[in-house]
Amino acid sequence: MSINRRGCNPKAYPEGIKQKLFEILGENLKTGELLASHTTFRIGGPADFFYQTSTPEELIKGINTAKEFNLPYFVLGGGSNLLVSDSGFRGLVIKNLCRKVLIQENKVSAQSGTLLSELVDLSEELGLSGLEFAAGIYGTLGGAVYGNAGAFGKAICEVLEEGIILTPKGKLEIVNRDYFEFDYRHSKLKSSKDILLSTTLTLQKEDRERIRKKIEENLKVRKSRLPEEEGSAGSFFKNIKSSKNCLSGVSAGYLLEQVGAKEMRIGDAKVFPKHANIIINSGKATSRDVKTLARILKEKVKEKFNIELEEEVIYLGK
Q1: How many Cα atoms sit within 13 Å of 222 on the Cβ side?
Q2: The domain containing residue 117 runs over which residues?
Q3: Is 235 a catalytic residue?
Q4: End residue of a domain, out of 36, 68, 96
Q5: Is 177 labeled as catalytic in the residue annotation?
Q6: Are 118 and 184 within one domain?
Q7: Which of 79, 184, 210, 272 could serve as a FRET partner for 41 with CA atoms 20 to 30 Å apart?
Q8: Digit-coded pLDDT (tens) for 179-203
């Protein structure tokens, strides 16, 4: 398929669909938006259609419109755990900028496009503890729930009380924590195709100074081992959750370090010197570069340890 770098391919869609989409979605709809500028990896070609939303109503409208025209669609949050194809995405990318937050005592209700960094700052300001682990984690609340994001032995599932979802059939439902079937870097959202619109988090009252110090400690640790200038998606592979062999519970970073990962690169995609489980874009890396490097890393770990690493990063596009 031939795609113009800054526009969609009109031959790929029924005649007049572009005009109809603009009539429905309005000025927030763009064509040919480069997705590299919407991901922390700084990699990715154009989306045929790109729609920014700032309210749940707009988000739902985008999803319903995609379904109406049989368009593939993808809801994009902070783009922090995502590798987009060099050829981009054939369909509609819906950018979730829904960021309204309501506070009632120790309960924080936030829309799914809210940045984790904003919630960490807000909770510290209000003397609410429970999100210190998320300090320095890029991305949105929706993405955090989708992948049960965590660090320092904590995860978002521990503070989530309930959520409002849009089901694949277009129904709005309020669901509790158990509905998400949380596991290590996993939630039901990965298979159910529900779209998270908002969540309620239950935090604990705590001395603000203690919260601030814990956040500073966590940020210091992350700064010491994570890239600051280069593009990346954080940890590329999941840690080993469980296994029948003696390597049960070993981190992916440890396994990768044992196979010499830190010395490896393909083009401008290379393994970060301070952390073997992070692939960085050191300049003009392509998605192909990153995928090739990831494949080689998996092969080396498989050969040495007979363990199949699983990507934590999501691949978007072909």
Answers
A1: 19
A2: 101-210
A3: yes
A4: 96
A5: no
A6: yes
A7: 184
A8: 999 998 999 999 999 999 999 999 9
